[in-house]
């Protein structure tokens, strides 16, 4: 009989915990960084590291093992063709966890887990730097301009053009004032405060009303057979 993992279980059952970690890994590989609770990040980190190691191997068996946990084929393709190659010269430590502080409401410790950059001294990186030194020097200025625009813009402007009448989570992962509906882009489901999965759901986008969420193409969690 398999030995259970130490610590509190995520979700209400082993199957629910497995689904939570799979969704978090999918979002991490798709966006490069996600904000979640410290407990979830600590459980996600070893799983993500194992998947990247399998992606570096690149064989069919490794791909099949990863697809048992990640159902989105486009994310699996990015993992094996881009992320795996990025860490070809790195032996481990592909992710980094940064503390963000407590979350408003339940005071849960929030963190940011992200994929670290590839080794700067790898042969491929050195070769690229010799070919295009001018472009590399101009990159920091472009990055500074982008950062200034994002910092000056209000929360609603950051997600403008993505979903109408929506807002992005605050830096600590909490909801902007007046927003109570949690939306998950991976499943395109939204959760109200009455939902049994509300506390376990990581909000990637917030809505004020159910009508706003449905207008953006989200369906209420629990109304289809897949949510049961």
TrEMBL record:
Instruction: Name one matching Pfam family.
Output: Ribosomal_L17
Q: Return one Gene Ontology term, BP aspect.
A: translation
**Composition bias, Basic residues:** 125-134
Its cellular-component GO annotations read: cytosolic large ribosomal subunit
What's the domain of life for this entry?
Bacteria
Describe the family membership recorded for this protein in Swiss-Prot or TrEMBL. Answer: Belongs to the bacterial ribosomal protein bL17 family.
Subunit architecture: Part of the 50S ribosomal subunit. Contacts protein L32.
Put simply, this protein is called: Large ribosomal subunit protein bL17
Which species is the source of this protein?
Kribbella pratensis
Which gene holds the coding sequence for this protein? rplQ
């Amino acid at each position: 009989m398999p030995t259970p993992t130490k610590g509190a279980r995520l979700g209400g059952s082993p199957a629910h915990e497995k689904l939570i970690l799979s969704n978090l890994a999918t979002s991490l590989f798709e966006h490069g960084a996600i904000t979640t609770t410290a407990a979830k990040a600590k459980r996600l980190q070893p799983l993500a590291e194992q998947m990247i190691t399998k992606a570096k191997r690149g064989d069919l068996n490794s791909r099949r093992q990863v697809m048992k946990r990640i159902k989105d084929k486009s994310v699996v393709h990015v993992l094996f063709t881009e992320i795996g190659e990025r860490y070809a010269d790195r032996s481990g430590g592909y992710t980094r966890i940064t503390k963000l502080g407590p979350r408003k409401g339940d005071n849960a410790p929030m963190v940011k887990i992200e994929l670290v950059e590839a080794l700067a001294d790898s042969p491929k990186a050195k070769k690229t730097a010799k070919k295009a030194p001018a472009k590399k020097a101009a990159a920091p200025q472009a990055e500074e301009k982008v950062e200034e625009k994002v910092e000056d813009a209000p929360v609603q402007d950051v997600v403008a053009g993505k979903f109408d009448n929506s807002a992005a989570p605050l830096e600590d992962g909490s909801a902007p004032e007046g927003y109570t509906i949690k939306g998950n882009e991976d499943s395109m489901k939204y959760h109200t405060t009455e939902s049994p999965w509300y506390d376990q759901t990581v909000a990637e986008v917030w809505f004020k009303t159910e009508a706003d969420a449905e207008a953006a193409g989200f369906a209420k969690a629990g109304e289809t057979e897949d949510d049961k």
